[in-house]
Amino acid sequence: MAKITLSKVRHSYMPNPSRPEDYALQSIDLEWDDGGAYALLGPSGCGKTTLLNLISGLRTPSEGKILFDDQDVTNLSPDQRNIAQVFQFPVIYDTMNVYDNLAFPLRNRGVEKSVIDQRVREVAEMLEVSDMLKRKAAGLSPDNKQKLSMGRGLVRDDVNVVMFDEPLTVIDPHLKWKLRSKLKELHQSIRHTMIYVTHDQTEALTFADQVVVMDRGQVVQIGTPVELFERPAHTFVGHFIGSPGMNVLPCDVKEGVAMLGDTAIELDGPIDRSRQGKTEIGVRPEFVSLVDEGIEATVRRISDVGRHHVIEAMIGSHPVAAIHKGDIPDLGESIKLSFKASQTRLYVDGWLAMQDSPVNRGETYEN
């Protein structure tokens, strides 16, 4: 296991990059503690797999350094970095049985037979495949093949980090929750440093202690699942995490007060008045309520999602969603809304603009 540090890491697939847009990965500084569970989360093309490949040693960064336990490994190969990697599609030997697949990484390193047997049976029990050890891998179901692929990454106890690159993409939806839970359980049991790459917010938020949200080659926010949900550093994070995503409404700021039309909106503390640019209010649907006196809106759509309804309304020409558990208004009906002040914030050019904000504003991000 290892603490992982990225220092001013930047990468371009061009031989001579000269402009910011030439870089697939913008400058990144971060540190992950030994034994933690981390996720890289973002849409396709955001740079998360590029970053994973830089950490694993499959690629060398154009600029910056990568350190494991403060040792510079920037130019070391994956085997020199002692990396285990689990890919989107299972990497197993179909002609071998389950036992031999799990034993193979250890046999390759000359581990004693008794130690191999102990580790194989320990990992098989953790993965709940002990009754399959004599079965040929070719005959396994897709989820058990991916379990086996995970096991090949976990069977070594000397790795610095185990990396998962969208490992549940090919798994049927009804089986994903089982494997997600199993992976979280495995981390709590063996405490390897683990990095999980995904575009699925549910996978990232259920697995990771800390999530790195990426967009357009940049780290937009690093935080716990609760921090990302309750205090998005950027409107992109608000949109990307949550279902439905955060409401973002254009507003004016007059003498330090956010105005939605003629209505003053109470916010979670004072505004950072030094910030200049496009101003917007951000509030999640969970914190929008139907009230007797409030902001006027018109119901446009109602969605029944089981435990509650999502009411989509229009404030003027701007849509806003509210999660509601009470009586349901009619389509086209005029309603009044209020925003929970402690969860309502101002954003300037997409970035959180509240005083004493603990988040990185990332001034170089272009919305």
TrEMBL record:
One GO CC annotation: ATP-binding cassette (ABC) transporter complex, substrate-binding subunit-containing
SMART domains: AAA
GO molecular function: ABC-type ferric iron transporter activity; ATP binding; ATP hydrolysis activity
CDD domains the record matches: ABC_Carb_Solutes_like
The keyword Transferase is annotated on this UniProt entry: no
Pfam name, any one: ABC_tran
Residue intervals passing through the bilayer: none
Keyword Transmembrane helix: no
Annotated ABC transporter domain residues: 4-241
Keywords: ATP-binding, Cell membrane, Membrane, Nucleotide-binding, Transport
UniProt cross-references to InterPro entries, sorted A to Z: AAA+_ATPase, ABC_transporter-like_ATP-bd, ABC_transpr_FbpC, ABC_transpr_MalK/UgpC-like, Mo/tungstate-bd_C_term_dom, NA-bd_OB-fold, P-loop_NTPase
PANTHER family: ABC TRANSPORTER ATP-BINDING PROTEIN, MALTODEXTRIN IMPORT ATP-BINDING PROTEIN MSMX
Protein name according to UniProt: ABC transporter ATP-binding protein
